[in-house]
What does this fold into?
Amino acid sequence: MTAAAPIPVTIVTGFLGAGKTTLLRGLIERRQTRRLALMINEFGEISVDGALVRAASEGDAHVQIEDFAHGLIAYGDDTRFVPAMQALARRRANVDHVLIETSGLALPTAAMALLQGADLAADFVLDATLAVVDTPLLLSGAFEHGAEADAAATMFDQQLEFADVVVLNKIDGLDEAALLEAETRVRRRAPNVRFLELAYNAQLDIRLALGLRLHQGTRTDHGHTFAPLPDANATPLASQYRLNGHAHSGLAAHSHGLATHKHFHEQDPGWLSFVLRSDAEQEVEPLTAALVDVAKAQPVLRCKGHVRVQDRSVLVQGVRTRVAVSPDAAAGNAARRSQLVFIGYHISRAQVAALLSAGTGTTWR
Ligand SMILES: Nc1nc2c(ncn2[C@@H]2O[C@H](COP(=O)(O)OP(=O)(O)OP(=O)(O)O)[C@@H](O)[C@H]2O)c(=O)[nH]1
It folds into this structure.
């Protein structure tokens, strides 16, 4: 009996708020006959992304979604990723492609390592790792190395470094000169990146996203050898080392770094995430203005959640000082309580709660 072909896996990485979930929703809409399984991981303790993707695929029996809120999947102390993937392998007759959305504070390398490990290598093959980039933010210099932004800049660099494909997202308002400048900046920071793709309105051509087969050469039946997998429990920095460089047919040889260190926020406890809640009805304009003020006063890199406005619920999405409020397809009309998750580097929960409460004239805690 011939072994079943391994299921291709695409890892979608990218910094907080780059547009990973939006891009995945677009891919689901244009999946045609492909049967997709999605693993969605986010940093905060409430799951917003999973609900949004679920709303995009409602009623579609060919889209399976596994939601991993809180924590980082595939990292050292995660026990959920491998069993979830093995369960997918058992249902392989119904899965053509797996997409993994990593948290905005994770590197793709942890999942890459497990895919190549003994538990999963026979059933899965890495198709490609995509890094989604918030292009206006890149051009604004937000990821330049400087005293304050260092942690974000480092994470951004590492996500690019381990990607095969960089997706320039949020480019709807940019002209050609800006796009060329963005490409130059990406190439300077990540010379190993093989393709740059443009996603207008977070729409990526599905043929450019799935089925790239960039890592087929990494399978052992192609004669490649690897350094042993890192010990996931080793101390964070000591366990970071590279796989042997390997050639891809028709493409230049390159190597992938493997940094299967534990939670990034354990390594750098400056990364914080917390949820603020309010039982009071909110108004969109003061709330939006208050969130912008919060992001100016505190190092908030991301905020999102469901907020009750009159008799309905709205979805709030903030990436630094850009805050958008839209109808809440995922929560329906039911959110009785407003909940917003905030993620940032050295942010003060007390300060954010005070500013938000003062700006909205309601209690947030
Ligand atoms: N203008 C514009 N906005 C976009 C685009 N893609 C995403 N956004 C917006 O950017 C915000 C963040 O998008 P998400 O898809 O949630 O980002 P994410 O990378 O999944 O975020 P995290 O999982 O929190 O890291 C949302 O308000 C989106 O509507 C785009 O191409 N153009």
Observations:
- The chain has a mean pLDDT of 83.
